[in-house]
Amino acid sequence: MLSVVVSAVNKLQRLPFATSEENVILPTMKRTSSTIRDVAAAAGVSVATVSKYMNGVQRFSPAVEARLKASIEQLGYRSNPLARSMITGETRAIGLAVLDIRNPHFTNIVKGANRVAIEHGYTLLLVDTEENQTRERPLIEALAQRVDGLIVSSRIPDDSVQWMLDLHKPIVLFGSNRHFPIPCVGTDSYLAAYMLTRHLVNQGHRRFAYLGFGQSRWNDERIRGMQSCLAEHGLIAALYEGHTPSPQAGERACSSIMLGPERPDALICYNDLIALGFMKEARALGFALPEDISVAGFDNVPYGEYTSPALTTVDLQSEKLGELAMHKLIDALAGKSDVGYSPLEPRLVARDSTIRRAASGDTTPALTTPTRNGDSR
């Protein structure tokens, strides 16, 4: 080993730029980062005092805190999160698992959850399961090792989430769960579909179709809400399956719906993305919207307002849903038990993609919360 070093030095000495001492640039050693002991010495306090100040577990006199702050800034000290978590047992991080971050519904959920997390001094760690059920469990299990609690949106059946409880972390789920005592949040999908269907019935539509996504825990509730409203008027809807909650699903289904023997005059889609894809393909096939068919969805994604025609939808209050989920998880971390289901109320957003087909005004009574069996999911 020594011979290799000597050989390298000899070669360096023969290089033109190294013929004089002033041309040799020696590497400098990287300065060691400041430690908590350095801060304690500079501020004239104990290491324990610095630790308590940094972790926010105790207040001190203004003079002591001023010295601590000045010493920390002067030394550029940063606490070690791993060491802190080993001492306190807390990571000050919360994990959020979403089904598809490209879907604006989930993007808005993340925005709302992150806002509340920051307000309470937590960092949000995100996992995107990409609508893949086989990935959900390993990704969520890995995330659980790095956080104090979890917020989860999942396609896993309600009766198959025992393994989540076995993670021994506080957890909040999107959608109600009747099988396990888990805090849950969601928007009332039954009421959302009932409201939207009633709006279309009041506009004079009589031939309905629904383009859904059967893997979703919300899909059945939306079908039930729609069918309940239609039954009150002696109407039924043709049901179609989109297979994915994406614009491509709407595009693929469009020709079979629009070119079939009984073309509907109103289409309700599982979400706005499917509706937007359907509208794009319908125009490509030569249909006029909404003259030939009214189209509506759920979620109130931001760009639905800017398509032509602007999309009628139901606002599921995604950001508030994220905020509510984070508040419930923070309460759980504080030892406050709330294992019930907390639904938000949906809001109808009527735009130009739906058109009035009846000359007479609305004759149905004002909307009240419909009676239904079980909680919406």
What does this structure look like?
With 377 residues, the chain is α/β, with parallel strands linked by helices. The chain has 3 domains: 29-89, 434 Repressor (Amino-terminal Domain); 92-187 and 320-344, Rossmann fold; 189-316, Rossmann fold (3-Layer(aba) Sandwich), CATH 3.40.50.2300. Helix content is 40%, strand content 14%. The strands form 3 sheets. The protein has a 6-stranded parallel beta sheet, with helices on both faces. Strands 7-6-8-9 form a 4-stranded parallel beta sheet, with helices on both faces. It has a two-stranded antiparallel ribbon with strand order 10-12. Helix 2 packs across helix 3. It is elongated, with a radius of gyration of 29 Å. It starts with a helix and ends in a 28-residue tail after the last strand. Mean pLDDT is 86; it is low at 1-31, 359-369 and 371-377. InterPro entries: HTH_LacI, LacI/GalR-like_sensor, Lambda_DNA-bd_dom_sf, Peripla_BP_I. This is LacI family transcriptional regulator. Keywords: DNA-binding, Transcription, Transcription regulation.
